[in-house]
Amino acid sequence: MPSAAGLAASAVRPWRRPSGRRLNRKLFGLAMVAPALLLYVVFVIYPLFRGAFVSLYQWDGLSPTMTWFGLRNYKYALEDPVFLLSLRNTFQYAIGVTIVKNVLGLGLAVLLNRKLRGRAFFRTAGFLPVIFSFVVVGVLWSWIFNPTFGLADKLLQSIGLGSLEPGWLSDPHLALWSVMWVDVWKWTGFHMVLYLAALQNVPKELYEAAAIDGAGRWQTFRRVTVPSIRPVIAFSTLLALTGAFVANYDVVYVMTGGGPLNSTQVALTYIVSTTFSAQEVGLANAMSMILFVGVAIIGAVQLAVMTRGREPLR
Amino acid sequence: MTAGSATPPRTLTRAPGTGPGPGLRRRIAAFSPGTYLIMGVLVVLTIYPMVWMLLGSFKSLGEFYTNIWGLPQVWRWSNFSLAWNDVQLGQKFINSIIATLGTLILTLPLCSMAGYAFARVDFPLRRYIYYFVLAGIMIPFGVTAVPVLTTEVSLGLFDTRLGLILVYAAQNLPFGIFLMYSFFQSIPGELEEAALIDGCNRFKAFLRIVLPLAKPGLATLLIFTGTSVWNEYLMASVLIHQPNLETLPLGLVNFTTAHSTNYPELFAALSIVTAPVVLLYLVAQRQFISGLTAGALKG
């Protein structure tokens, strides 16, 4: 398909220019993509395959020899009760925070999607935790949950529930929920802003039509709002889900280190400790592959369900 | 942020029940105490922990335990200088700045070039290469942490600034290319064609004509990549072992484990580390918000 420029050039020098242009363009395109592609292949794609390869060997990560292990690392991983627990925790964490962040974010966005004094301030304040590092957020909330002088317990005492004294991070039944709360705290503002932007793009006429038809608040929300912002809901939950599956390392490591009794151990923290403390690099890579496949399947299923019968995301 | 101030007349003239489309207008514009209550709780929940952190960093250790809610009796600025020296924050600031700038110097040009080529230039296998790169958005980088480490060791890049920067840049490429691709697609093509006719070569046309139009996209990319690199912990903890190369998140975690009893000083360190990002956010919050959410909306 000759461009306008190509045509103009061929009019001047008809015997050489057309094919030269085309070749030029192909080389130009490849040259523009090549540096990024090189970096991507060396530091993202190659390590992924390298991980799959190493997962078939027994290796401490240092010695020059690797012992062929076949699928035994996978067998060991799936027989390891702590790894299974960490997978269970990862699922609870990811699915739990995804639901809460999106429900809260959408709810807050609906509240903010009207003429409201101070709306810009609420938006700015709500988004603030998003820019914080999980290290800072994790350390901060560890002290808030501290049993001797933490804010959380003082708050309970001040409303007369001091006798509960929940071990926010020390009770194995509660610790994972506390860490999940911190994730929700950090990210809800992000989803709120996302949904707010989506809501502002819903045509006003749809709401007016719904009002004329006598639709109530909940009906309007179900029949007008949700279908209109469906692609954003799909993307937002996908983002939250895949993010929560694999970006939970920092907060768990900083707040509990996976304890007490592995109750907050997630797959990533266990993989890292398998690598560096146990030096079972082959086994750790097998665990990584299991996690990777799990995340990919869940992401694909989630996207398929959320966009069912719809035109796929661009 | 825009809509609140864009249409003042309608809000001013509204009275309950008198607007057009009776039920609806009233509902959209009504003052509702419930909403303010919920928003108030939200604001307290997001801001109070940070205020508490800042106040805590001025207190003495004793006061930290006894005077939990109140203002510090004596404002101990010395906590900040102590923290600065103990955590060697100066060095870690420099390291974090180098890592962030280095990553940006790589990602901004690479993502613009690749995004432009994918959007505008017809070359062999373009579509497949684009999907191949795009798939990277779905790869959980934590999963590749260990093989990345082995790769860096074999390339002699382990425990170096360059090694960290290359990994950060590579991991931020897929999203960045996707973002720039969407941006270049929205810019009309006539401009570069005119430039080509005028005798510009393709690269010059890209550099002089198209790129300046993509400034908002670049700003978005800068904020997205900049924040994620500034806050990154896992890769840094795997790839950096020399104390003098540690970035801020690494330094903070190590300080937490080493001085786990000196809370005011720890809080001072947290405040120092957080301050630049918060200030930047307050100055450029529009760009921050669009930068961090653009991917989802464009998607």
Determine the oligomeric state from the structure.
heterodimer
Spans of chain A of at least 5 consecutive residues whose pLDDT stays below 50 are 1-18
Protein structure class of chain A: mainly alpha
Total beta-strand segments of chain B: 0
Shape call of chain B: globular
Helix content of chain B: over 70%
Class derived from helix and strand content of chain B: mainly alpha
Strand content of chain B: under 5%
Specify the CATH homologous superfamily of the largest domain in chain A.
MetI-like
Order of helices and strands of chain A: HHEEHHHHHHHHHHHH
Q: What is the global morphology of chain A?
A: globular
Number of helices of chain A: 14
Give average pLDDT of chain A, whole number: 85
Main sheet summary of chain B: none
Termini of chain A, distance in Å? 25 Å
**Main β-sheet description of chain A:** 2 strands, antiparallel
Mean pLDDT of chain B: 82
Outline the structure in words.
The complex is a heterodimer of chains A (about 325) and B (about 300). Chain A has about 325 residues and is mainly alpha-helical. Chain A has 2 domains: about 5-40; about 75-305, Orthogonal Bundle (MetI-like fold). Chain A contains 14 helices and 2 strands. Chain A has helices at about 5-10, 15-55, 70-80, 80-110, 120-125, 135-145, 150-160, 175-200, 205-210, 215-230, 230-245, 250-255, 265-275, 280-305; strands spanning about 55-60, 65-70. A two-stranded antiparallel ribbon of chain A has the order 1-2. In chain A, helix 6 runs parallel beside helix 12 (about 250-255). With about 300 residues, chain B is mainly alpha-helical. Chain B has 17 helices and no strands. Helix content of chain B is about 75%, strand content about 0%. Chains A and B meet through helix 1, helix 2, helix 4, helix 5 and helix 6 of A and helix 3, helix 4, helix 7, helix 8 and helix 9 of B.
